[in-house]
Amino acid sequence: MTQNTSDTALPRILIVGGGAGGLELATRLGRRLGKRKRARITLVDANMTHIWKPLLHEVAAGSLNSTEDELNYVAQAKWNHFHFQLGAMRGLDRERRLIKLGAILDDLGQELIPERELGYDYLVLAVGSTTNDFNTPGAAEHCLFLDTRAQAERFHRLLLNQYMKAQARGEQSVSERINVAIIGAGATGVELAAELHHAARLLQAYGLDRIRPEDLHINLIEASPRVLPALPERISTPVTETLKSLGVYLHTGAAVKEVTAEHLLLANGECIPASLKVWAAGIRAPAFLTELGLETNRINQLAVYSTLQSTLDKRIFAFGDCAACPAGEAGTFVPPRAQAAHQQASLLAKNLGRVLEGKDLLTYQYRDYGSLISLASFSAVGNLMGNLTGSVMLEGKLARLFYISLYRMHQMALYGVPRTLLLMLSDRIGRSTEPRLKLH
Predict the structure, then answer these.
(1) End-to-end CA distance of the chain, in Å?
(2) Helix/strand/coil for 384
């Protein structure tokens, strides 16, 4: 039922971070509370558009055109009864219940929007994580990262520039070589390696044949003894075999000691030449979280209870990669995975409604529904876990189908079923009328 309460007098729920979790939460709350005038929901993000972070490796390889899969925050807010503010959080005043947003500059460096303050009654931090280079010498200067769409697009431009440069040199007797190094053989690193090999084949098919697929030397470096160290070995083994069959060079059991402009130096003394270097190992939460007066851990994550409330302020919640949430066993924490952020967004949507009603909060329990790894068009491997099925191993086309369904589930949470079905139809039509690889 719609109430006549003035919008300015409503409880203010402020969500900082428009990643998968933050955007899903804002959408759910907008539909449940904003539409009924029970609360004023505001989402804050430093960008105008959203793209699902697990897709960034496809943006980097060029197999996904980010402009076609992005979601505009302003439009999403209009459709789902919440508000959007552009900006990056720079500080917190807990006594006055205000967050501080930094100034926004235009492309020429001129101030477009000055510093601002936004008030809240309940604050939710969902600012995600960034790659952790562990302060490795030279990593920040010489490596690319895949934390944002802009970074992924930059990698794609640099890769494409090397192909264009080689093609412009004309016919030569010897084809040219590109050395790519990917540090970290977790899901992002493994999937990027496969996507790059797939991209190399497509680039040759489109006539950029001065660099053959076998001349794109992809090195995957992992400090642990095997690829996908966080996942079961029954998943890691077939993935390793597929990567080797694609010609990916695996370097396991040796950490990166130093990064230079042209090489990687490993702890075992090995030197790997690389003109393109991507760091995809480890995560840490944004550093500004340590300056808010809240409890954080060694990788900047905010300490929260199982209700997702911060340990020092019950009006402040945090979830997703930026939160250290207790798991089932003592001393363990919820892993930084997309499925965890999705589950926590669902719980937090209920808890914020319960807060407004004066009810006790529900506690979060992590449920592992399995893992799926996509190896471009070559294969997919994973396992699904459930109460009825136990653990089911998947491989090949069926695993690929389930992998794609994860993104469709994310779209359904944001758009609803009818619009998601239309998007699926549009994607299918687009594949028959557009290049299969972004060539610019």
Answers:
(1) 50
(2) strand
CATH number, residue 174: 3.50.50.60
Q: State pLDDT tens for residues 233-248.
A: 988 999 999 999 999 9
Whether residues 384 and 334 fall in one domain:
no
Locate 191 and state its tokens.
């999937």
Length of the chain: 440
- Alpha-carbon dihedral of residues 165, 171, 173, 179, nearest 10 degrees? 20
- What is the C-alpha to C-alpha distance for residues 60 and 196, in angstroms, rounded to an integer? 8
Which of 329, 356, 383 terminates a domain? The answer is 356
| Residues paired with 302 in a beta bridge | 296, 323
Domain count, the chain: 3
pLDDT digits (tens, 9 = 90+) for 368-413: 888 888 888 777 887 776 544 456 767 777 777 777 788 888 888 8
Judge whether 271 and 292 are in contact, CB under 8 Å: no
For residue 189, the SS3 value is: helix
The DSSP secondary structure of 85-138, one letter per residue, reads EE--EEEEETTTTEEEE--EE-TTS-EEE--EEEE-SEEEE----EE--TT-TT
Answer yes or no: is pLDDT of 335 > 60.
Answer: yes
440 inside domain: no
* Owning domain of residue 406: 370-428
Q: Rounded to 5, what percent of the chain is helix, strand, coil?
A: 35, 25, 40
Tokens of 84: 């959007």
Same domain, 147 and 246: yes
- Which residue type does 114 have? P
Q: How far apart are CA 411 and CA 430, in angstroms?
A: 18
pTM across the whole model: 0.90
Residue 215 within any structural domain of the chain? yes
